[in-house]
Amino acid sequence: MSPDHDRATAPPVTRPTLSGQTHTPVDSATRRRVVGASFIGNFVEWFDYAMYGYLAVTISAVFFPDSDPATGLMMTFSLFAVSFLVRPLGGFFWGHIGDRFGRRVALSWSILIMSLATFLIALIPGYATIGLWAPLALLALRLVQGFSASGEYAGASAFLVEYAPPRKRGIYAAVVPASTATGLLLGSLIATVLTATLDDQQMIDWGWRLPFLLAAPMGLIGRYIRSKLEDTPAFREMAVKDEAVKAPVGALFREHGGRLLQASGAVLLNAVGFYVILSYMPTYLSEELGLDSTSSYLATTVALATYIGFIFVTGSLSDRFGRKRVLMSASVAFILFTVPAFYLLDTDNFLVILLVQILLGGMLTLNDGTLPSFLAELFPTKVRYSGFAVSFNLSNALFGGTAPLVATWLIATSGNVVAPGWFLMAAAAVSLVAVALSRETSRDPLRAE
């Protein structure tokens, strides 16, 4: 009789955890499938979501052709920001689905909705064809994208943390920002190739649509892979005991309001830093500093590649030294070095620009590689998805989605191209205080309640 048959027929052995719960042990093959599915699904979602930011200059010419370039770009980033306004609403919705009916259910539906909305963006006629209906249709689909994205990051993080070995939750959860950055990296590579091979008119006529068309096949592949997974042991145990909360968001506000505030503050550096450094930066370099578009995208592409490698290092560091210590180090680094880094960006030396972007990305990984495990551990199983989704999306709606718009506005009103650096520095100060007031979570078992 084969070993596989023995494993299939033998009753599962449960082991008590420090919290008094019992979980069926998870084998390494299952964990590998979970990591792979989480990576691919999150990668697809954020590739879809990020392409808008990378192609903002071209999109502004397609949908706001009657405006001057600066105004058109501001209007394009306004649509980028408006799509974030639905993310807290999406956080409530997906948090309820994920805590009430399962993490897998929420993640499978969110990727399907995101991919459909992104694919449809590629099919919208431009302003020259249907007038005002063009930006209105774009706005509607961006709102759908924002609603979908609000469930992805939180759900994938909760999924990985609940499957991870107790002392490796940090490095497992780091898969989420790594896959996010990989989605951005592919987007940046595609934008680099398109701008290098097509002229401006070709980009406006049809080139910008190509990345959005990829959403349909990629989304279907991601959904298929996710549908083949079981839900997490922690959620299955809660479901068997019939302990799932009927209104998890209500329980979150009643019982964990203090943690929700701490989590929202801790997310602030991630929200601003992610969209300024990894999404807005090519536009900043080309439109504000005068670097050519291909070089701008190339610098961001290289910085993203190094960011992905740094992410796993910081996830591992958080397992070894604790979440608070690494998160606070990130905030201190941004407070000290962000403004000088932005001064260095204002140069004609491509190598200096590249090194500064790598430095900023490396500093950001200290936060981003640690934050998913920190937020997931902060809340108990019954409201983990909701706590993560609400706090993460609230800060991103208020400060992340508006970051490119605020950065552009700050430069326009102050005349100072370093203004985004001061914005990042302020966000880091708020996150430092929020993390300092929170508890260390890395050594504790995951709590059920």
TrEMBL record:
It is a multi-pass membrane protein. Residues 1-27 are annotated as: Disordered. Keywords: Cell membrane, Membrane, Symport, Transmembrane, Transmembrane helix, Transport. Residues 34-443 form the Major facilitator superfamily (MFS) profile domain. It is found in: Cell membrane. SUPFAM superfamilies: MFS general substrate transporter. The chain crosses the membrane at residues 46-64, 70-94, 106-124, 170-194, 206-225, 260-282, 294-314, 326-344, 350-367, 388-411, 417-437. It holds the Pfam family MFS_1. It comes from the Bacteria. InterPro entries: H+-coupled_symporters, MFS, MFS_dom, MFS_sugar_transport-like, MFS_trans_sf. Its main location: membrane. PANTHER family: ALPHA-KETOGLUTARATE PERMEASE. This is MFS transporter. It comes from Citricoccus nitrophenolicus.
